[in-house]
From TrEMBL, chain A:
Coiled-coil portions: none
PANTHER family: ARSENICAL PUMP-DRIVING ATPASE ARSENITE-TRANSLOCATING ATPASE, ATPASE RV3679-RELATED
Domain of life: Bacteria
Protein name, UniProt field: ArsA/GET3 Anion-transporting ATPase-like domain-containing protein
Domain ArsA/GET3 Anion-transporting ATPase-like: 12-182
GO molecular function (one): ATP hydrolysis activity
Source organism of this protein record: Nostocoides jenkinsii Ben 74
Gene3D superfamilies for the chain: P-loop containing nucleotide triphosphate hydrolases (3.40.50.300)
TrEMBL record, chain B:
Entry protein name: Putative ion-transporting ATPase
Matches recorded under InterPro entries: ArsA/GET3_ATPase-like, ATPase_ArsA/GET3, P-loop_NTPase
Taxonomic source organism: Nostocoides jenkinsii Ben 74
ArsA/GET3 Anion-transporting ATPase-like domain ranges (all copies): 31-305
Taxonomy, superkingdom: Bacteria
GO MF annotations in UniProt: ATP binding; ATP hydrolysis activity
SUPFAM superfamilies in UniProt: P-loop containing nucleoside triphosphate hydrolases
Pfam families the UniProt entry points to: ArsA_ATPase (PF02374)
């Protein structure tokens, strides 16, 4: 990858965005793009939505890492859905060799407490698992198991709290092993090895949330990677056509279009012509809005990547198309 | 699947009925409307549009929003997060209705609950506890629980002073739409659980004496907790829990009351979705869950549905565009046809997703709101959405932007 790309030297890619912007799709496309470059990549979800398994049309993911696909380049893509209870048990086992006490904690309701109610502890466990996967090594040479980890993170409204949760915890737990773990995780998240990519649509609210999140992430000591603009529609009409429609040269245009329609045997050409021009007028409005929002994003001076709207949906190879776009635009 | 309680239309299994929002709003027996669904589907816009339409049809409505987009908030006159319902300027009072709006302040609401249920001295102690500060600002589910609490308060106030006869509630942008329903129960099971008694034991008994009173298993658990969390955190948690002890009854009771309110026939749920697979899957979960909980579902709102006017199919448009493509002077018409074909493709995808939903959940009243060309950020935009929601769009621009 080019040294100027926001992925240079990054081991943990965090992908967030307003709900409905397609952050899971973008996270998957990014992970696939990395895998197609010969890397071993882990794609992680933390909200148990089973978004990854649905996208790749595989069995639901669990707390075990499974291989989603192998690429001819030698790269591979793995998937994981982190489950807080399993993460807590794994953590207790690893650090305390707790057999009986783990079961006791569960019985006393402590596991439920830790994973659903305790402030931030659930998030700490989820990130803790991601942190473990990023740093995991194998063999005598201590080679990294994964070249990159891509995290499908909570939406922008909650991501800063999610990523900052270790800081918050550190204020509560002033010492002890959880404190130490929290400090190491914060160090990884705030290092250059971690970047947060923001996904947005060219609509007012997603863009506003994207800009707000960028400011919050920066204030939280986190590094923003790229902004991925999703579902961009190609201008179907030429600039001249757009101008004609926008300038209200409609009556003359409507007649001309109706004539053209009639020549290819379309029934009710006048009615269809009026419909097409109304659609075009909406299209112009939408393009104006998009241009306005695009300017706000460009003004941030960040790397911006554009993914096309796949009118047939993201099934059936759509992720591959998006992955190739990200590679072509040198996001990876 | 269990039969759905529906309202506004008669149930007719196997077919989809149109949701009649106007009939719902005209039913004075309905006092609470809850808008729920996945994040990013236009819940807040839907809630605001419904409240406005209700007020302009003569209801005295208040809308509780959780996290509105800035311009939508401004259009409702919401400039600060202060937990106080304020009149919305610019709505039409001709039908004798009124419209108030407010934004939920989660922390403030939690503080108020504490102040209401504890003695002033104890309240002060709780509000200053570091564990409380963390819980009240980041407790998993605090926003959901506080939205419920605020709903209960508004409902009580509407009984007391008759200021409102309809409360429209937006729900928090949760991990899952179900969190809103689960939060009070989760808090309840926590308050009733063994774990909280375990946490409280040291503070109650004091000193080392309590250790002896506990079983070996319990003391081991406490030992592990101390080791894990550090002694300070555990002590803060214990102090917090002990301080809350006196008000548990109140908390628990309120959570139960609000939950019962949601099962009351005066409440109606609107499940909001977008015509995408994920959003409709969340909607399906919610619809099923409401049935299990005996909570009254009024219907499903699907926002931002791409429609196409006229009978020109995608295939026909593409063929016609191809036939015109070779003639430069007809390029504009060819481009317009390609644009139409694109829209038709999107519309087909939306139809497919919606059809899968209705097949799995037959008989549920449903209304589609067309995609808007631009974002909604003023009362006129909300009016257009309200008109579309009632199945009586008065302008082609009606729709939900985001």
């Amino acid at each position: 990858m080019p040294s100027t790309s926001p992925s240079h030297g990054v081991r943990l890619h965090v992908v967030t965005g307003k709900g409905g912007t397609g952050k899971t799709t973008v996270a998957a496309a990014l992970a696939l793009a990395l895998a197609r470059q010969g890397r071993r990549v882990l794609l992680v979800e933390v909200e148990d939505r089973q978004g990854i398994s649905q996208l790749f049309d595989i069995s639901p993911l669990g707390h075990e890492e499974v291989q989603i696909l192998a690429d001819p380049s030698g790269g591979s893509l793995w998937g994981l859905s982190v489950e807080p209870k399993a993460a807590l048990m794994e953590y207790l086992q690893k650090f305390y060799k707790l057999g009986r006490a783990g079961a006791l904690l569960q019985k006393a309701g402590a596991v439920d407490f830790a994973t659903t109610i305790a402030p931030g502890l659930r998030d700490v466990l989820l990130i803790g698992k991601v942190y473990e996967a990023v740093g995991r090594t194998q063999g005598r040479a201590k080679e990294r198991v994964y070249d990159a980890v891509v995290l499908d993170a909570p939406p922008t409204g909650r991501v800063v709290r999610f990523l900052g949760v270790n800081d918050e915890l550190a204020q509560l737990a002033r010492m002890g092993p959880i404190r130490n773990q929290a400090d190491s995780i914060t160090a990884l998240l705030q290092s250059r090895a971690t970047v947060v990519h923001l996904v947005t649509l060219l609509e007012e609210m997603p863009v506003q949330e994207c800009l707000d999140a960028m400011a919050e992430l920066a204030a939280g000591g986190l590094h923003v990677g790229g902004i991925v603009v999703n579902e961009v529609r190609d201008p179907v009409l030429s600039d001249d056509d757009l101008d004609a429609i926008a300038s209200g040269a409609a009556p003359e245009l409507a007649d001309r279009v109706a004539g053209d329609l009639e020549s290819v045997g379309i029934k009710n050409p006048d009615k269809v012509s009026a419909i097409l021009l109304r659609e075009a007028s909406d299209h112009v409005d939408r393009l104006d809005l998009q241009a306005e929002q695009d300017q706000r994003i460009q003004a941030q001076g960040r790397a911006v990547f554009y993914l096309p709207a796949l009118s047939g949906g993201i099934e059936a190879g759509g992720i591959g198309v998006l992955a190739d776009e990200l590679t072509t635009q040198e996001m990876v | 699947m269990a039969p759905q309680k529906t309202r506004g239309t008669t149930r007719d299994a196997g077919t989809t009925r149109e949701l009649d929002v106007d009939a719902l709003l005209a039913d004075r027996g309905i006092r609470i409307l809850v808008c729920c669904g996945a994040g990013g589907v236009g819940k807040t816009t839907t809630a605001a549009a419904i409240a406005l339409r209700a007020a302009e049809s003569g209801r005295r409505a208040v809308v509780l929003t959780i996290d509105p987009a800035r311009r939508l908030a401004q259009s409702l006159g919401l400039t600060e997060l202060d937990n106080i319902p304020r009149p919305v300027v610019g709505f039409d009072p001709a039908a004798g209705g009124s419209l108030d709006a407010m934004m939920l302040d989660m922390k403030r609401t939690f503080d108020e609950v504490v102040e209401q249920h504890a003695t002033p001295e104890k309240a002060e102690q709780i509000l200053a506890n570091p564990f409380y500060v963390a819980v009240s600002s980041s407790f998993a589910g605090t926003q959901e629980y506080m939205a419920m609490e605020k709903l209960g308060q508004l409902r009580q106030q509407s009984d007391a002073d008759d200021r409102w006869d309809l409360i429209v509630v937006d729900t928090p942008p949760s991990r899952s739409a179900l969190d809103f329903l689960d939060a009070p129960k989760r808090l309840g099971s926590f308050l009733d659980g063994r774990f909280i008694r375990l946490l409280m034991a040291p503070a109650k008994a004091g000193g080392k004496a309590y250790m002896k009173a506990l079983t070996a298993g319990m003391s081991l658990t406490v030992g592990v907790m101390t080791k894990l969390l550090g002694g300070d955190l555990l002590r803060d948690a214990q102090t917090f829990v002990a301080a809350l002890d006196t008000m548990f009854g109140g908390f628990r009771q309120r959570a139960d009351q609000t939950y019962a309110l949601l099962q009351n026939p005066e409440t109606a749920f609107l499940v909001v979705a977008a015509p995408q697979r994920d959003a409709l899957r969340e909607a399906a979960f919610f619809v099923e869950r409401l049935a299990v909980e005996s909570m009254p579902l009024a219907g499903v709102v699907i926002n931002r549905v791409q429609g196409v006017e006229g009978g020109l199919t995608r295939g026909r448009a593409e063929d016609a565009a191809a036939a015109l493509a070779d003639e430069p002077e007809r390029a504009t018409t060819a481009a317009l046809l390609r644009l139409h074909a694109d829209l038709a493709t999107i519309a087909d995808a939306h139809r497919g997703h919606i059809a899968r939903f209705t097949t799995g959940h037959p008989g549920i009243p449903l209304i589609e709101v067309p995609a808007a060309a631009t974002d909604i950020h003023d009362l006129d935009g909300l009016r257009a959405v309200g008109a579309a929601l009632s199945g009586r769009p008065h302008s082609a621009a009606a729709g939900v932007g985001a």
